[in-house]
Amino acid sequence: MTQQAVIFDVDGVLVDSYQAHFHSFQKLLGELGCEFTEPEFRVTFGRTTRDIVAKLYGDKLTDQEILQFDDRKETLFREILREDFPAIDGAAELVQALADAGFHQAVGSSGPPENVALALDSLACGKHFTARVTGGDVTRGKPDPQAFLLAAEKLGVAPQQCAVVEDAPAGVEAANRAEMASIALTGTATREQLSHARLVVDSLRELSPECIATLIEN
Question: How many CB atoms lie within 10 A of CB 189?
Fold first, then answer.
């Protein structure tokens, strides 16, 4: 059998980090005397912090200031996550099952390497990810496919033999543009918002090595 691989996003797929990201943004922007509502955050979720800050305040901030705000926000995020780490139900079990079935596995995230390391260490399944792509490795955030294509390259697996598990519309689009089998997990976004994925599931427990292999082959 041709070697197959699964590339996981981290936020919203391995860790239920939506609220932690939202509250860290709220706290950061509150320090600046600005309000940031949940609907405003929802439409940006899945993009890099740098992209979000630049989109909201790019005309008022220098590139250096954007980087400083990015660092501060991610520090706040990790503080929240360390206090209460909400793993996605079924994540560790799926990763283990894929490893047992011989799949290569990677992380393809736009998040900082420190965030990815914290998530994988907390899940205690980091050993099964033989490649990691984080925001420190890419210059273009999702929906650009750069992160996923780089992950496939690191794994030595053709993009067409990869599946991607994502929770954000931008991430699904990135997987599609990479010509990978896109699997969307609801929660961050609705089924309608994720309808451009090849497969949409409501729980990682709906996935198995067999169904993912079939999805890639078809």
Answer: 24
- Please check whether residue 145 is in contact with residue 174, taking contact to mean a CB–CB distance below 8 angstroms: yes
Q: Give the whole-angstrom CA distance, residue 168 versus residue 184.
A: 8
Cα 61 to its chain centre, rounded Å, is: 26
What is the phi/psi pair of residue 84, to 5°? Answer: -155, 100
The domain containing residue 70 runs over which residues? 18-83
Verify that 192 and 126 share a domain, yes or no: yes
- What CATH number does residue 33 fall under? 1.10.150
**Rounded to an integer, what distance in angstroms lies between the CA atom of residue 110 and that of residue 94?**
22
End-to-end CA distance of the chain: 14
Q: Specify the amino acid at residue 127.
A: K
Question: What pLDDT, in 10s, does the model give residues 29-66?
Answer: 888 788 888 888 887 776 777 777 777 776 777 888 88
Q: Which distant-in-sequence residues (6+ apart) come within 8 Å of 160 by Cβ?
A: 179, 180, 216
Global confidence as pTM? 0.84
- Nearest 10 degrees: Cα torsion 203, 197, 9, 101: 70
103 class by beta-carbon count within 10 Å (0-12 exposed, 13-18 middle, 19+ buried): buried
Q: Measure the CA–CA gap between 207 and 70, rounded to whole angstroms.
A: 34
